[in-house]
Design a protein that fits this description.
six-stranded antiparallel β-sheet; 401 residues; DUF2252 domain-containing protein; DUF2252; three-stranded antiparallel β-sheet; globular; 45% helix; 13 helices; alpha+beta; 17% strand
Length: 401
C-alpha cells in the first residue's frame, strides 16, 4: 500500500489545489479534524481488515461521526435534529455506518482528554440504543417538542435564529445594495467570468426548475468554504433577492457533488444514479424524517451540484463544547436512535435490508463487541496517521501538487 502522504495526495489531486492547502491546515488542527478529512482512508482500511460480522444492507450517510448531526428546517417548516451530511452516501452493510460513528467517539473523547473508560461507556451506550431502536422497528424523530437536554436547548436556539441575523453575518451594504461580504473568512472572490456564468445559470434554474424559489434573482456570488472533508470541492454561495417583496433575500448554497469515497470499498452493487448530486439528495430524502427545505440538483459546466438553502437554523453540534458528561450521554443516546431510525425509514428500498431483517440485527447481540474492538483499534491507527501527517505537514511535504 502507498505511504500515507501519497494516499492523501492522490485522493485530493482532483480538487482545487489552493483550497486543498486550507484543507490540510484544518486537518492539522487535531486528530478528530484529521479523521473528518480522511473518510477515504477509513474505508480503504476497513476493506483490507478482517471482515466485520454480517449485517443487513442499509442506506447510510457514509461519513457518520459525532459532528454530522445537527438542526435543519424541513419543507414542513419545522426544525429537526437529524443526520445532516450525505456526500458519501451509499448502500452498504449497516455496520459500516455504526463502526465509523463509534470510531469517532473514541477519537473525540481522546481529543477532549476524557478517560478511555468513559469513551468505552459511550460506545456501549450508542450501540445499545442503536440496537434497541432497530429491534423495535419504528423510526423516531427529534424536534423541539420531543427533544431532551442539550439537544432541546440547541433546537430552541436554532428556532430563534433569524434570516436577518444570518444576512448580517454574511453580507455587507454597498451603495444601498446588499452584497455577500468578502470580509468573511469563508468567502472568496470569484473570477468575473465564472461569477457571470453562475448568475446566469441560477437565474435560469429559478425560472425553469420546479424546485426553485419563485420570483427571485441572483444579486451576488462568492466561493464558499465549509466543513473539513469537503474543502477543495467547488462550492458557491449566492445571494438571491425577491423581485416582488421588498428587502427579502435568500442564501443559496451550491456544492459540487463528487463520487462517494466509500463506494469503491463497499462490497455492494450501487444504483445507477443520474449523477452524483442525485445520489446525495436521493439518499438524504430517504434517511431524514422530513426532507430539508429547498433541496435540489443542477448541472453547471458539465458537473453535478447540490443546491440547498443556507438556513439560519442549520447548524451542527460542536462536540468540543460538550464538557458535561450528562449532556454527552443524552446527545449520544439521541444520535444512536437517529442512526437506527434513518436505516429503518429506508428499509426494503432498492437493495436495503427489510424492516424485519434490520429488527433481527438489532436483537442480535453477537456483533457489537467486534465493532467496538475494530473502532478502538482504528482510533489508535488514526492517531498514528495524524502524527505522521502532522510531521510531514510541518516539514512542508504537502505543498501544491
Amino acid at each position: 500500500m502507498m505511504e500515507l502522504k501519497e494516499r492523501l495526495k492522490a485522493f485530493n489531486a482532483p480538487l482545487l489545489q489552493d483550497k486543498v492547502q486550507l484543507k490540510y491546515e484544518s486537518m492539522a488542527e487535531n486528530a478528530f479534524r484529521f479523521f473528518r478529512g480522511t473518510c477515504h482512508l477509513f474505508y480503504q482500511d476497513l476493506a483490507a481488515a478482517e471482515p466485520l460480522p454480517l449485517s443487513p444492507q442499509a442506506w447510510i450517510c457514509g461519513d457518520l461521526h459525532i459532528e454530522n448531526f445537527g438542526s435543519y428546517k424541513a419543507d414542513n417548516q419545522l426544525v429537526y435534529f437529524d443526520l445532516n451530511d450525505f456526500d458519501e452516501a451509499v448502500l452498504a452493510p449497516a455496520s459500516y455506518e455504526v463502526v465509523r460513528m463509534v470510531t469517532s467517539l473514541f477519537i473525540a473523547f481522546d481529543n477532549l482528554c476524557f478517560e478511555p473508560e468513559k469513551a468505552l461507556k459511550m460506545a456501549r451506550l450508542y450501540l445499545k440504543t442503536y440496537s434497541a431502536t432497530l429491534a423495535k422497528g419504528k423510526a423516531i424523530s427529534i424536534e423541539p417538542r420531543t427533544a431532551k437536554g442539550i439537544v432541546c436547548d440547541f433546537l430552541k436556539a436554532a428556532e430563534r435564529s433569524t434570516y436577518k441575523e444570518l444576512l448580517k453575518k454574511r453580507t455587507v451594504s454597498k451603495r444601498k445594495t446588499i452584497m455577500l461580504s468578502l470580509a468573511d473568512e469563508r468567502h472568496f472572490k470569484l473570477d468575473k467570468h465564472l461569477r457571470k456564468a453562475l448568475k446566469a445559470h441560477i437565474n435560469e434554474w429559478i425560472k425553469t426548475s420546479n424546485d426553485g424559489p419563485y420570483n427571485y434573482e441572483v444579486r451576488s456570488a462568492v466561493f464558499r468554504l465549509a466543513g473539513t472533508g469537503s474543502i477543495g470541492v467547488k462550492r458557491y454561495l449566492l445571494l438571491l433577492k425577491s423581485t416582488n417583496t421588498k428587502n427579502h433575500y435568500l442564501l443559496l448554497d451550491m456544492k459540487q457533488a463528487r463520487p462517494s469515497s466509500a463506494a469503491p470499498f463497499v462490497p455492494v452493487q450501487q444504483l445507477a444514479w443520474d449523477n452524483e448530486a442525485a445520489r446525495v439528495i436521493g439518499v438524504q430524502q430517504r434517511l431524514q424524517n422530513v426532507p430539508a427545505a429547498l433541496l435540489s440538483t443542477t448541472e453547471f459546466q458539465g458537473e453535478a451540484y447540490i443546491l440547498q438553502e443556507l438556513q439560519p437554523v442549520k447548524d451542527s453540534i460542536k462536540f468540543k463544547l460538550l464538557r458535561d458528561y450528562r449532556d454527552m450521554y443524552q446527545v449520544i443516546d439521541d444520535m444512536a436512535a437517529l442512526t437506527a431510525s434513518a436505516q429503518l425509514r429506508s428499509g426494503g428500498i432498492q437493495g436495503s435490508g427489510t424492516i424485519d431483517e434490520l429488527m433481527a440485527f438489532g436483537k442480535d447481540q453477537g456483533w457489537q463487541e467486534a465493532v467496538i474492538t475494530y473502532a478502538q483499534s482504528y482510533a489508535e491507527t488514526t492517531g498514528k496517521y495524524y502524527q505522521q501527517f502532522l510531521k510531514d505537514f510541518k516539514a512542508g511535504n504537502y505543498g501544491t501538487t
